[in-house]
Amino acid sequence: MRSSAALRIIVDENIPAAVECFSQFGEVQQVSGRELSRADIGAAEVLVVRSVTKVNEALLAGTGVRFVGSTTIGTDHLDLNYLAANEIKVCNAPGSNAESVVDYVISAICSCGNLLDRLLSGEPVGIVGYGNVGRRLGRRLSALGIAWRAYDPLLDQATEGLSSLEEVIGSSFVCLHAPLTRDGLYPSYHMLGLDQLGAMPANAVLLNAGRGEVVATEVLLSLCEQRPDISLVLDVWEGEPCFPANLASRCRIATPHIAGYSADGKLTGLRMVASELAAFLNLSLLPFAVPSSMADSAEIACDGANELDFIKNAVAAVYDVMEDDKRFRGIIGSSNRGQAFDLLRKHYPVRRELAYSALASTNPKFSAVLQALQSGR
Ligand SMILES: NC(=O)c1ccc[n+]([C@@H]2O[C@H](COP(=O)([O-])OP(=O)(O)OC[C@H]3O[C@@H](n4cnc5c(N)ncnc54)[C@H](O)[C@@H]3O)[C@@H](O)[C@H]2O)c1
Ligand SMILES: O=C(O)[C@H](O)[C@H](O)COP(=O)(O)O
């Protein structure tokens, strides 16, 4: 331990390698992030959380916490105004698991009937929220030769690729990657209603991997009633962890908020927060033990009868979203869905990102498409 050995640090027990990493700064205590209360904080000065911990006055008032790090991209669980007003340093991990979300979207494309075929034939993708995830998704789609357009009202509208909301919603495959916001000029809370989503083209697919609250559950249920041709791919839910079972059972693909759960993304998030803490303490970040599951994988050889087949085989060899869907379907009828949802997330298998996997094409004619699939990072 270093000069700050007396520092008391609370970390969520579900952040892999957090104890190894943060022990270099002080004494680390693991807690259940979902249940963390003010009484548990005791004398801690540093709090390292995930998206399941609401960090606000109710949690922090009267405590000695002066640094809050969230190993997540999203910040909607952090009361940033309260933290700023109380001079508590706060950081998150922008972009850390964005490539993992893109892998999820690509795997979903491969798993929704003939969607991949339709997109490769020129039907466009619509992206709502053109930030770290949206941009990386656009880049990967372009590399694969798939057309896309994005809606992001907070960016300079001259940004290449941006379009109107109507045009984006008019795409065959619409992906929601907006953060959850409740104020400002364009709050995303319940931002899409039945009028807008009902205008999606025939046989369209709607994917939400942003936050569940961006579309009301009731709107999605009505959409299922009125437009049974539309398929839903949902990774995020209103009121997590207690997801609506009636909506889950109507989805084409349903998963428990794991789009960003690659091992690579989690480790990047941890490193980003640890670097911020090191800077805050005027220390340098020492190397820490990385889990052995992060070692380079053995080569995965891929082939296919044609490009479409090759893409599906290569993606499924690294990450098959239908495995997550299968596990999730197993808990839809559970008597304690919230707990079951959290357990699926807690015991999530090690998943590597496409870009970090040792994929190899046994057929030289697919080398370029393999490169496109692995173009993340
Ligand atoms: N499902 C998952 O596992 C998972 C993983 C990572 C991130 N996320 C969620 O995805 C969100 C986006 O991630 P990111 O890395 O791209 O974040 P980001 O902050 O880099 O980008 C978000 C973009 O959305 C735009 N935006 C804000 N309000 C909008 C609105 N009303 N309509 C359209 N666009 C709007 C912003 O201008 C910004 O460009 C995160 O905030 C998080 O909530 C989910
Ligand atoms: O905002 C994010 O980074 C993602 O939603 C992230 O995957 C959430 O995971 P959690 O913090 O709940 O483990």
From TrEMBL:
<feature type="domain" description="D-isomer specific 2-hydroxyacid dehydrogenase NAD-binding">
    <location>
        <begin position="118"/>
        <end position="259"/>
    </location>
</feature>
<dbReference type="Pfam" id="PF00389">
    <property type="entry name" value="2-Hacid_dh"/>
</dbReference>
<feature type="active site" description="Proton donor">
    <location>
        <position position="257"/>
    </location>
</feature>
<dbReference type="InterPro" id="IPR036291">
    <property type="entry name" value="NAD(P)-bd_dom_sf"/>
</dbReference>
<dbReference type="InterPro" id="IPR038251">
    <property type="entry name" value="PdxB_dimer_sf"/>
</dbReference>
<keyword id="KW-0560">Oxidoreductase</keyword>
<feature type="binding site">
    <location>
        <position position="152"/>
    </location>
    <ligand>
        <name>NAD(+)</name>
    </ligand>
</feature>
<comment type="pathway">
    <text>Cofactor biosynthesis; pyridoxine 5'-phosphate biosynthesis; pyridoxine 5'-phosphate from D-erythrose 4-phosphate: step 2/5.</text>
</comment>
<comment type="function">
    <text>Catalyzes the oxidation of erythronate-4-phosphate to 3-hydroxy-2-oxo-4-phosphonooxybutanoate.</text>
</comment>
<keyword id="KW-0520">NAD</keyword>
<feature type="active site">
    <location>
        <position position="240"/>
    </location>
</feature>
<keyword id="KW-0664">Pyridoxine biosynthesis</keyword>
<comment type="subunit">
    <text>Homodimer.</text>
</comment>
<dbReference type="Pfam" id="PF02826">
    <property type="entry name" value="2-Hacid_dh_C"/>
</dbReference>
<comment type="similarity">
    <text>Belongs to the D-isomer specific 2-hydroxyacid dehydrogenase family. PdxB subfamily.</text>
</comment>
<dbReference type="InterPro" id="IPR050223">
    <property type="entry name" value="D-isomer_2-hydroxyacid_DH"/>
</dbReference>
<feature type="binding site">
    <location>
        <position position="260"/>
    </location>
    <ligand>
        <name>NAD(+)</name>
    </ligand>
</feature>
<feature type="binding site">
    <location>
        <position position="261"/>
    </location>
    <ligand>
        <name>substrate</name>
    </ligand>
</feature>
<feature type="binding site">
    <location>
        <position position="72"/>
    </location>
    <ligand>
        <name>substrate</name>
    </ligand>
</feature>
<feature type="domain" description="Erythronate-4-phosphate dehydrogenase dimerisation">
    <location>
        <begin position="298"/>
        <end position="373"/>
    </location>
</feature>
<dbReference type="InterPro" id="IPR020921">
    <property type="entry name" value="Erythronate-4-P_DHase"/>
</dbReference>
<dbReference type="InterPro" id="IPR006139">
    <property type="entry name" value="D-isomer_2_OHA_DH_cat_dom"/>
</dbReference>
<dbReference type="Pfam" id="PF11890">
    <property type="entry name" value="DUF3410"/>
</dbReference>
<protein>
    <recommendedName>
        <fullName>Erythronate-4-phosphate dehydrogenase</fullName>
        <ecNumber>1.1.1.290</ecNumber>
    </recommendedName>
</protein>
<dbReference type="InterPro" id="IPR024531">
    <property type="entry name" value="Erythronate-4-P_DHase_dimer"/>
</dbReference>
<feature type="active site">
    <location>
        <position position="211"/>
    </location>
</feature>
<feature type="binding site">
    <location>
        <position position="51"/>
    </location>
    <ligand>
        <name>substrate</name>
    </ligand>
</feature>
<keyword id="KW-0963">Cytoplasm</keyword>
<feature type="domain" description="D-isomer specific 2-hydroxyacid dehydrogenase catalytic">
    <location>
        <begin position="15"/>
        <end position="282"/>
    </location>
</feature>
<dbReference type="InterPro" id="IPR006140">
    <property type="entry name" value="D-isomer_DH_NAD-bd"/>
</dbReference>
<feature type="binding site">
    <location>
        <position position="235"/>
    </location>
    <ligand>
        <name>NAD(+)</name>
    </ligand>
</feature>
